[in-house]
Amino acid sequence: MNIRFYNARILPLCAADETLLTGELWTENDRIALVGDPAGRPRPAFDREIDCRGNVLLPGFKNAHTHSAMTFLRSFADDKPLHDWLHEDCFPMEAHLTADDVYDLTKLAVLEYVSGGITAAFDMYYHVDRISDCARDTGFRFVLCGAVNDFGGTKESLRDDYLRLNRSHPLISYRLGFHAEYTTNESLLRDVAALSEEFHAPVFTHLSETAAEVDDCIRRTGMSPVQYLDSLGMFRYGGGGFHMVHPRAGDFEIMKARGLYVCTNPASNVKLSSGVAPIERYYEEDIPVAIGTDGAASNNCLDMFREMFLVTGLQKLTVGAAAADPMKVLHSACSVGARMMGLDDCDCLKEGKQADLMMLDLHMPNMQPENHIGKNVVYSGSKANVALTMVAGRVLYERGAYAFCPDPDAVYRRANEIITRIRKAEGR
Amino acid sequence: MNIRFYNARILPLCAADETLLTGELWTENDRIALVGDPAGRPRPAFDREIDCRGNVLLPGFKNAHTHSAMTFLRSFADDKPLHDWLHEDCFPMEAHLTADDVYDLTKLAVLEYVSGGITAAFDMYYHVDRISDCARDTGFRFVLCGAVNDFGGTKESLRDDYLRLNRSHPLISYRLGFHAEYTTNESLLRDVAALSEEFHAPVFTHLSETAAEVDDCIRRTGMSPVQYLDSLGMFRYGGGGFHMVHPRAGDFEIMKARGLYVCTNPASNVKLSSGVAPIERYYEEDIPVAIGTDGAASNNCLDMFREMFLVTGLQKLTVGAAAADPMKVLHSACSVGARMMGLDDCDCLKEGKQADLMMLDLHMPNMQPENHIGKNVVYSGSKANVALTMVAGRVLYERGAYAFCPDPDAVYRRANEIITRIRKAEGR
Predict the structure, then answer these.
(1) In chain B, N or C: fewer CB atoms in 10 Å?
(2) In a mutagenesis test of the B interface, which of A53, A71, A79, A106 is the best target, namely the one with the most B β-carbons within 10 Å?
(3) Residue A205 belongs to some domain of the structure
């Protein structure tokens, strides 16, 4: 499919600035063929031409940390701090999930992703082959993240997944990872570091999410989680930490030296009472910051607009009103996440890049007047403004309709069946 | 018009609980004629019957503090603390507004209100007669709030507005108020208190929004703003404070004794770096809490879903994960606000009450599965879920269309003309 978007405004987000183009965007199969002024360019045959009516195109959001299939626990596991939430609600309920459950619950998340302008997710969960099936069946882009820990997974299973899933399909890739320092014994951590060495590959994990986690690691090892993992050689090829709410003195230097990314998840962090990550400090230190929703069990929605406002709002609250520049935050949400996930071709709107984008409808009251379109997106934008979401040149979502799912109610029914079955089994 | 909603689920919110009815809701002209089970009730002739398909009806949001016409400064006055924002951006730009500008900019806000499920606004702004015209022309419900201060308004103008606008139209009422303690001299404050005595009427104002405001008042008067105003007899007939981020020792007792309401505006408070209001403490003290968006200049959107998540999220962050029960927050947003504004007939879905309500579409991924519909609304809900908004029995908004405004683009064009003209005049 070759698609022509015309009468468009375009936020390419090739840098963290408010560059705004006017003109057209052309796709050719899965890639962007033109951005901006089409004058003098030979016009190919288009399969479809879309009048944008002055609406804005921008790179899709990259949900850089999530557990997609946890949709089944939305509004079930609330109002508890992380430890109790995890051990009392998540682990016992998750133990009942089948591989097919994970497929169906991930599909529910994909509906939410594309209706909210998200074009890729960095998904840490189990039954990765069924998540991978979901990517093929929906056309959505998944970067799967290893999740080995003391309750499941080995060096061998992690290596197998890495080798089998990377390059298995253009929409699927796989990154080394483990659940967290506090759920993974040192021997298994050394195994992960050895795989990183073997593949020259970065490693990702939940990191320094709560103060208790950091204090406990210091008590056990004399080092913060960042320092301890680094001492095992975990980050020789880079990687990143999900959450990173509680860095300690010395962590920033390691993060810069190793080129680590931070993925911040502010809705989850406030709801679990984990704290506010020092995002402005990361920006100042030039530590790249991506943004994620975390899973629906803790957030509870998968909405990058809400995350963006929280990223900037919580910094303004804790640092000052000028903190967390909105264009930096938008760049984090759309572009930096792509690079964290290894999706270097999905980070901005530019010729030759993957056609992963959204169109936001500016003909809605929350986007008017147009004093500053980028700030309107970050400070006032809503998933209600998402008119179209495209992944790899395919329109997956358009004004309420899902190209890959003619009957979303069937997905909702399945999700309700799954949680009803598990509640019954657990007597809850 | 008599309307029948059927196949509905209904959150009446007559209390801060999750009572959920299944059945029908009937309206007769501007009032609710039936809620729940229609068995045995004589069936009137309906002008329209709406199949809710299992979607949920709940009382409309009451935006209990806003400055509607400030839409023109959306994404213009950002990233500054309150004092600089007010004096450098708001006051000079507002000085150029005409009465007709206020009408048009208020209409833009009404489009945003109804598309987000808001059915009434407590609006503190100038040119109140043109706001009142906007209520008549759109069918939206406005409670106007006096805003006298050292830069405009007198005891006489406040009395005139109060007498002229109250009971001028079923959708319009007027409450005594002044801008803030820090912008109003004591003589004028005593005038407002005297009017409160004359009409036995409650008084509303911006109150204890920033720490600097409170400290400054203590320096000048030896009392916190709440105590100082109370010492002038301001709250003999009740009333309330917008923001109330920084209560001091002794304030809670006065608030309880006078029956004062708090309207919290968390998005504005984080964005202007003003702080986090102690909402959980207000809940514990049984001080009634309403929720407002504040104006688009500070927020920057007029979205009660975002406010609700911030109310609960910021309490969880600062107090603990169990703080700010979601059903209390939903009750604050839909019901307590009505009582603060004097709209005792608009607070819940019950026979005889005003038909001010919204329908939320549950057939969307962010509302599934249905572990708890009320928590889904507070933790995952979005204005994208608003399928219909009704005020006084009239459908004002339905799936993207505005009954009172066939051409919203004309409203957007006017808003852009206004801000362009004023930017030019100010050379900005």
Answers:
(1) C
(2) A79
(3) yes
B106-B109-B113-B118 Cα dihedral, nearest 10 degrees: -40
Q: Which two tokens stand for residue A81?
A: 């701090």
Distance CA(A138)–CA(A120), nearest Å, equals 12
Question: Each residue of B244-273: pLDDT tens digit?
Answer: 999 999 999 999 999 999 999 999 999 999
| Cross-chain residue pair B325–A79, CB shorter than 8 Å | yes
Helix locations, A222-336, DSSP H: 225-231, 251-258, 266-271, 279-284, 304-318, 326-331
Interface check A127 vs B, CB under 8 A: no
Residue of A nearest to B417 (CA): A369
How far, in Å, CA of A13 to CA of A11, rounded?
6
To the nearest whole Å, the CA of B383 is away from the closest chain A CA by 6
**Same domain, residue pair B225 and B322:** yes
Report the pLDDT value the prediction gives residue B202, as an integer from 0 to 100. 98
Domain-located, residue A147: yes
CATH of the domain at A76: 3.20.20.140
Same domain, residue pair B101 and B217 = yes
My answer on whether B267 and B302 are in the same domain is: yes
Domain check: are B132 and B32 in the same one? Answer: no
Smallest Cβ–Cβ distance between B384 and the set A273, A370, A383 belongs to: A383
Query: CB–CB of A383/B382 below 8 Å?
Result: yes
**Mind telling me how many Å the CA of B327 is from chain A's nearest CA?**
12
3-state secondary structure of A42: coil
pLDDT band at residue B333 using 50, 70 and 90 as cut-offs:
very high
Taking only residues 35 to 74 of chain A, the set having a beta carbon closer than 8 angstroms to any beta carbon of chain B reads 71-74
- Tell me how far apart the alpha carbons of residues B176 and B145 are, in angstroms, rounded to a whole number: 6
* Predicted confidence pLDDT, tens digits, chain A (428 residues): 999 999 999 999 999 998 999 999 999 999 999 999 999 999 999 999 999 999 999 999 999 999 999 999 999 999 999 899 999 999 999 999 999 999 999 999 999 999 999 999 999 999 999 999 999 999 999 999 999 999 999 999 999 999 999 989 999 999 999 999 999 999 999 999 999 999 999 999 999 999 999 999 999 999 999 999 999 999 999 999 999 999 999 999 999 999 999 999 999 999 999 999 999 999 999 999 999 999 999 999 999 999 999 999 999 999 999 999 999 999 999 999 999 999 999 999 999 999 999 999 999 999 999 999 999 999 999 999 999 999 999 999 999 999 999 999 999 999 999 999 999 999 99
Domain co-membership, A156 together with A304: yes
Interface size A-B, in CB pairs within 8 Å, comes to 205
User: What is the number of residues in chain B?
Assistant: 428
Q: How many domains does chain B have?
A: 2
Cross-strand bridge partners of residue B31: B28, B354
Q: What CATH number corresponds to the domain at position A372?
A: 2.30.40.10
Tokens 């049984």 belong to residue: B286
B50 with B68, same domain: the answer is no
d(CA A281, CA A319): 9
CB proximity B221 to A under 8 Å = no
Q: How many helices (H) and strands (E) does chain B have?
A: 16, 17
Name the residue of chain B whose CA is nearest to A415's CA.
B369
Domain encompassing residue A150: 61-342
- The yes-or-no verdict on residue B297 having pLDDT over 90 is yes
Please tell me which residue of chain B has the smallest CA distance to A270. B317
For residue A423, being part of any structural domain is answered with no
Mean pLDDT, rounded, of chain B: 97
Task: Report DSSP state, residue B44.
Answer: P
**Distances from the Cα of A135 to the Cαs of A103, A168, A169, A416, B176, in angstroms?**
10, 11, 9, 22, 58
Residues A311 and A381 in one domain: no
| Residues A85 and A52 reside in one and the same domain | no
pLDDT reported for residue A167: 83
